Amino acid sequence: MTRPTLSSVDASVAVPDRKSEHLRIAAGAGVEHRAGPGLASVRLRHRALPERDLEDVGLETRVLGRTLRAPLLVSAMTGGTPEAGVINRRLMSAAAKRGLAFTFGSGRQLLDDPDLLATYRPDEDERPPLLLANLGGGQLRGGDGPVRAEQVVELLGADGLSVHLNPLQEAIQPEGQVAFDGVLAGVAAAVERVAPLPVVVKEVGFGLSGADVKALQEAGVAAVDVAGAGGTNWALVEGFRDERAASLAAAFSDWGLTTAEALEAATAAAPGLPVIASGGLRDGVDCAKCLALGAVLAGMARPLLLAARADRADDVLATVVRQLQIATWLTGASGSSQLGREHLA
After folding, report:
1. What is the pTM of this model?
2. Per-domain residue ranges of the chain
3. φ/ψ (deg, to 5) at 172
4. Regarding the domain with residue range 47-343, which homologous superfamily does it belong to in the CATH classification?
5. Does a cis peptide bond (omega within 30 degrees of 0) precede residue 196?
């Protein structure tokens, strides 16, 4: 892959150009964590006598005040460019059809230019049961941070806000913003501003530590998404955009907590706080493992990005849902909401 030079990727690069690059690179090779999400060693218990019919195994769940037909989340990906509009149309349509949750790509660009709304939400009629707007933690710093949070939720007609934390990506990105002082206070202020709608805080693929999860719980968030290492590595993505960023990024190819580690840390640090698991999940069995480890939802991004680019988003989501139902059935659980550690081998 030909890499642009630093002179062509500096602070003057327009955000739409950067988003287009992110989308292209994230769908390519060489951008995933060196190790997996830590789920290979997690085994679900197999029951040869499930003692119920497969079709009687329920997947319905209620999360953040919304009822979903399956505990799955289309994780945040993109917005702001023509290609993003096509991808979001396909993903939202599939999520609506399957009754799943959906998180928009970062709304920072939308706040600067509301005319980009159609690239985030292409069709008002295609509405998944749970829609989360998305804004970076750095955008919540300062006195007008909570106002920005409220605005992005209103612009997208969302049911809540997802705040993404990406310090490593910002540190590698040539035009990154690495001022993170005051982010936690900004999160707390956003929670208060958008109430009663929920605020979820997520990493972007390097995991949340137990200490971070505890601090976020004290800030009043409704849930966290641990987004652990194992899937797309955004440091490496930034490295593909620039040669000197690549030399920085290389040292972080296996950085962070795996999804399994982050999930364990989160459930131990903040009992009772809903935890979403994402980061390297590739199928319905991975999702079932995360639910058994204590997650309330399982999120997927890269596999769905690839599916949407091939116009197969609904087919892939249908397969993941069916895999989850079969895996749940084979553990002997009556439904996915009943999965727990007793269903691990």
Report:
1. 0.91
2. 47-343
3. -85, -35
4. Aldolase class I (3.20.20.70)
5. yes
